[in-house]
């Protein structure tokens, strides 16, 4: 007679294997992380929309590496909550909130006037991939119970976390070999 494991063990192993595969897939789709040790102590970094999502994760990663981070947000209260969280977690007190509403030319000009700089600015476009952030906050389907039960568990492994979504921007900001690269698109 051939020995076969108890059904419970088979089901549990199958579930554990599926969960591990899902985690591996999530990590794989999360993209390459910046693994260098480059620090940007005292470098001033301005991040728009940084009270949540990809912007906040980028602010966190750069503050961790010593940057002086200016969080350019439209909502002072939300910005302050996020700022305190970043300061506490990074132990970098040089993180500031400044109001900038990107829907208002007046607000953008007021903000920019404080930071007029000379040359040395590079501009690149980055695509973060599909990231699980508040970007769907106004899309009722994605915030519904239906989606939470029938959609999210199945697409979870293919969608990046905010930290993973910030990897491209963080990489661009830190990678030495890209410091003079401008006008390119990265994904
Ligand atoms: N998530 C994705 O899958 C994905 C994919 C491709 C590209 N992107 C791009 O990546 C960027 C960040 O997206 P996310 O997913 O992190 O979105 P998110 O979680 O919705 O965060 C957006 C941030 O932008 C701020 N914001 C919105 N309108 C603003 C305005 N008029 N002035 C100043 N700040 C404003 C929001 O502030 P409030 O909290 O005050 O609203 C928030 O801090 C966006 O440009 C998005 O288009 C995202």
Automatic annotation (TrEMBL):
> What UniProt keywords apply to this chain's record, in alphabetical order?
Oxidoreductase
Q: Name one Pfam family in it.
A: adh_short
Q: Which GO terms describe its molecular function?
A: oxidoreductase activity
The question of whether Cell membrane is a record keyword is answered with no
What the entry lists under PANTHER family is as follows: PHOSPHATIDYLINOSITOL-GLYCAN BIOSYNTHESIS CLASS F PROTEIN (PTHR43157:SF31), PHOSPHATIDYLINOSITOL-GLYCAN BIOSYNTHESIS CLASS F PROTEIN-RELATED (PTHR43157)
Protein name as it appears in the record:
Retinol dehydrogenase 13
Species name for this entry?
Cryptotermes secundus
**Which taxonomic lineage does the organism of this UniProt entry have?**
Eukaryota, Metazoa, Ecdysozoa, Arthropoda, Hexapoda
């Amino acid at each position: 007679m051939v020995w076969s494991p108890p059904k419970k063990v088979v089901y549990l192993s199958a579930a554990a294997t599926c969960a591990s595969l899902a985690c591996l897939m999530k990590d794989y789709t999360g993209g390459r992380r910046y693994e260098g040790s480059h620090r940007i102590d005292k470098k001033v970094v301005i991040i728009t929309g940084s009270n949540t999502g990809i912007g906040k994760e980028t602010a966190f990663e750069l503050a961790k590496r010593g940057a002086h981070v200016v969080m350019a947000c439209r909502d002072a209260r939300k910005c302050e909550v996020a700022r305190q969280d970043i300061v506490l977690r990074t132990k970098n007190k040089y993180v500031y909130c400044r109001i900038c509403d990107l829907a208002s030319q007046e607000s953008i000009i007021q903000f920019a006037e404080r930071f007029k700089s000379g040359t040395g600015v590079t501009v690149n476009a980055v695509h973060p991939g599909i990231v699980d952030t508040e970007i769907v906050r106004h899309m009722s389907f994605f915030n519904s119970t239906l989606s939470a039960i029938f959609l999210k568990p199945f697409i979870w492994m293919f969608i990046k976390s905010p930290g993973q979504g910030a990897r491209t921007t963080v990489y661009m900001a830190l990678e030495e070999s890209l410091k003079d690269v401008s006008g390119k698109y990265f994904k």
